[in-house]
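From the shared-data thread, chain only:
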Amino acid sequence: VQLVESGGDSVQAGGCLRLSCTASGYSVSTGYMAWFRQGPGKEREGVAFIDGFDDSPTYVDSVKGRFTISRDNAKNTVYLQMNSLNSEDTALYYCWSRAGWGQGTQVTVS
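Structure, as C-alpha cells:
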C-alpha cells in the first residue's frame, strides 16, 4: 500500500493550493480518509476527514470555510483544496488512510 501526496508549494498569504493523495494497493472509496498536518514546532493535527460511507466531511475549526476535502474514486485520489491560506497553514501535510500514511508534502505560506 502506498499513498503519494503532491501539490505542496510556497505561496503568498491569501493564495490557494490543491493537494492530491493518490493511493496504490488500496481503494480510497472504501474507507475513511483524512489529511493531517504538522507545522514547525507543533504536533501533528487532523485537518480534514471524509467519511467512507457518505463522503460527509469534517474539518478542524481553523480551516472551516477555507479547506475542502473530496475524493475521486475513478482516480483513486483524495484532494484537499485550500483557499485563503495564511502563515498558520504552513506545515507538512500528510494523507492518511487505515492502511497507513503518505510521506507528506510541504506547504509554506509567507
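The mean pLDDT is 95.
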